[in-house]
Amino acid sequence: MTTPTKPAALTGWQATLLVAEREILTQIRTKSFLISNAITLIIILGGIIIANAVNSGDDSVSVATVGDTSAVVQQAEDLDVTAVSDQAAGEQLLRDEEVDALIVPDDSTLGMRVIALSDQPTDVISALSVSPDVELLEPQDTSDSLRSVIALAFGLVFMMATLGSGTVILQNTVQEKQSRVVEILLAAVKARSLMAGKILGNSVIGVASAIAMAAAAALGLLLTGQDDILGLISTPMIWFVVFFLFGFVLVASVFAAGAALVSRQEDTGSVMTPAMMMIMIPYFGVVFFADNSLVMTILSYVPFSAPVAMPVRMFLGEAQWWEPLLSLGLLVACTAGVMAIAGKIYSGSLLRMGSRVSVKEALRNN
Hints:
The protein is mainly α. It is 67% helix and 6% strand. The model has no long low-confidence stretch (mean pLDDT 83).
């Protein structure tokens, strides 16, 4: 009689992958996740298309001309000129609202007169006016508005993705503790493998969401013929994904460690504060100081804000070739250190039920 063989224990990496797969499948099967992401992508794509349609609308004004005024009026910009045989024909076009104004010759200094139906045709008058050349002593940098838009876009994507996935890690961990499911999970995998799997699974979802948002934006730019902007943003976007990955792991580690310290959903507010600060700092930092090169340079080397600040500086051409490499190295080193500490906190407090566990107690329990 043969005795059944005991199944081999999972290695740390196998356990991590198993937990990560569970996290991914659990999220992508929920209707709320699918609906929220679909709405986000539709808003991004639709927003770009609508904004382009509004900005590129037909600004031309239609006018009818009589006699020699046609040659003069055709030199004006943004005027769609229709020549008519006489004033009566032009007035009929006005009453039919097929043109915005009628221009006829007269004996005045200008040699022509503008006729409208009921309102002053300010667009026609402006187009016919001769504007002098203007010289600006202190011209405003036109890149300031673009700088703010790019900073807002990168910051918003980082905040939405990390906040969404980080909150999921927090809620799932506390729910597993509160329902005692964590005791069953720890019988199969180690605590650090459980934490690593949660971070890995949610990192995959977070990066996939960021890539999907970038793809939606790229599609919108292609559909609206804004290929030049897409060409400018392609390299910073690749760097943003790389920085985003490590930045997300950094923030997710803090979320996971904080979640292990409490065992009730009512207590999650206090442990969310550090992680929330790490998310809000890069967002508000790059939004409010996008036009301050010194502050942006500092933010591009701070690990929490580097995933947003450095790609923005690269897009604007303000970063030297070696700066993203140095910033990424600092981010990777910081992420590794935070993960190591978070792993100790997670292991030392995951099975502690009841009141909130302090960080010092969690570290002491290892």
